[in-house]
Design goal:
Layout lengths: L1 H12 L7 H11 L4 H21 L5 H25 L6 E7 L6 H12 L3 E9 L1 H10 L4 E5 L7 H12 L7 E5 L5 H7 L3 E2 L3 H11 L4
Parallel strand pairs: 1-2, 1-3, 3-4, 4-5
Helix pairs in contact: 1-2, 1-3, 1-4, 2-4, 3-4, 4-5, 5-9, 6-7
Length: 215
């Protein structure tokens, strides 16, 4: 399992560079017969979990998270053709996007990467997303969670419209909702009936897991 631990540490360090170390370690691990599930969960996802905890405790910052996510993706790209054969299911599916009228996506992108690093299947709806598009994508991908972001007080009101549209749709109580962004608070989440609020990317992962009952 030394190789798996090296993969984990490589993700934490963000080993990409010219030699794309994490990618090469994953290839070596596969060649040595190490199970795909172990490489994914004990190596790649475990590494991103450490980074998520550090980020939440302000022990690392956005640049470190970004390079770790890139390192993880270089490894998962190698595994992707094998995942279906290994019957490894994602821990859940999340549709994420910036609400209608808002064109900011840095925070949303960071949350998406952290969710992927935690083993979620993430459907990125992009920016300026209307309630109807959130609902359509959630239905198409059988989503468990819809995550909404807003950076402006003038656009965060669209979260209320989206939550109400989801509640009125056939998704009903099936899909949980999480909101976040600079002006957003737990109080506002409670007011509009959102399932959860996340003040930062790492908390978004924790909240998604809580809503789905994942330890």
């Amino acid at each position: 399992m030394e190789l798996v631990e090296q993969i984990k540490e490589g993700v934490i360090r963000g080993d990409i560079g010219v030699d794309r170390k994490v990618e090469e370690l994953v290839k070596t691990a596969l060649a040595k017969g190490i199970a795909v599930e172990s490489i994914l969960k004990d190596g790649l996802i475990a590494g991103m979990s450490v980074i998520g905890g550090q980020f939440k405790r302000n022990e690392c910052y956005v640049p470190e998270v970004l390079v770790a996510a890139r390192a993880m993706k270089s490894g998962t790209a190698v595994l992707k053709p094998l995942l279906a054969d290994s019957h490894i299911e994602p821990v859940g599916t999340v549709v994420i996007g910036t609400v209608k009228g808002d064109l900011h996506d840095i925070g949303k992108n960071l949350v998406a990467m952290m969710l992927e690093g935690a083993g979620f299947n993430v459907i990125d709806a992009g920016i300026d997303v209307a309630p109807e598009k959130f609902i359509q994508l959630a239905k198409e991908h059988n989503a468990d969670v819809i995550g909404m972001s807003a950076l402006l007080t003038t656009t965060m009101t669209k979260m209320k419209d989206t939550v109400e549209a989801i509640r009125a749709s056939s998704l009903g109580k099936k899909v949980r909702t999480i909101i976040g962004g600079a002006p957003v608070t737990q109080r506002y989440a409670d007011e509009i009936g959102a399932g959860g609020f996340a003040p930062d990317a790492a908390s978004g992962v924790d909240r998604a897991k809580q809503l789905l009952g994942i330890a």
